Amino acid sequence: MIAEWRKSKFVINIGAIYILIAAASYSAGEILSFFTLRSFDSASFLVYCSFLSAIIILVLNPTLFNKLSFYAKPKNLSNIVIVSINDTLASLFLFNAYQLGRNALQIGPLMATQTIVTVY
């Protein structure tokens, strides 16, 4: 809200609405993940989430197949591989924390430190 406060008034544009929807969706996904991980292996859960998400996106927007040539370039491919490895490790650590700790009230605020680390 502070970022959108301009000239003594609150401005909401389409980007802010997308962010609010994304935040709500991400939060719902985290809550559902927490409950699912009580009885599911974290590595298997990550595989299912990743592949199902990719399949759903490709089904909803089949024109994305045309843009896959982007990944054929060595620089782009290496960047995607590095980001994917980091994201996979972060997700595995998060899911294992949920399984071991079973306390989303502590894990959620600790995950907020990613914003501090990212901005820093």
- Helix-strand sequence: EEHHHHH
Global mean pLDDT: 82
How would you sum up the global shape? Answer: globular
The main β sheet shows up as: 2 strands, antiparallel
N-to-C terminal Cα separation, in Å? 20 Å
Determine Rg (CA atoms, Å): 18 Å
The total of helices stands at 5
Class computed from helices, strands and strand pairing: mainly alpha
The beta-strand count equals 2
How many domains comprise the coordinates?
2
Strand content: under 5%
- Low-pLDDT residue intervals, each spanning 5 or more residues: none
**Helix fraction bin:** over 70%
Could you characterize what this model shows?
The chain is mainly alpha-helical and 120 residues long. It has two domains: 1-36; 41-119, no CATH class. The chain has five helices and two strands. A two-stranded antiparallel sheet has the order 1-2. The longest helix is centred in the last third of the chain and has 28 residues, at 74-101. The chain is globular, with a radius of gyration of 18 Å. The two termini are 20 Å apart. The mean pLDDT is 82.
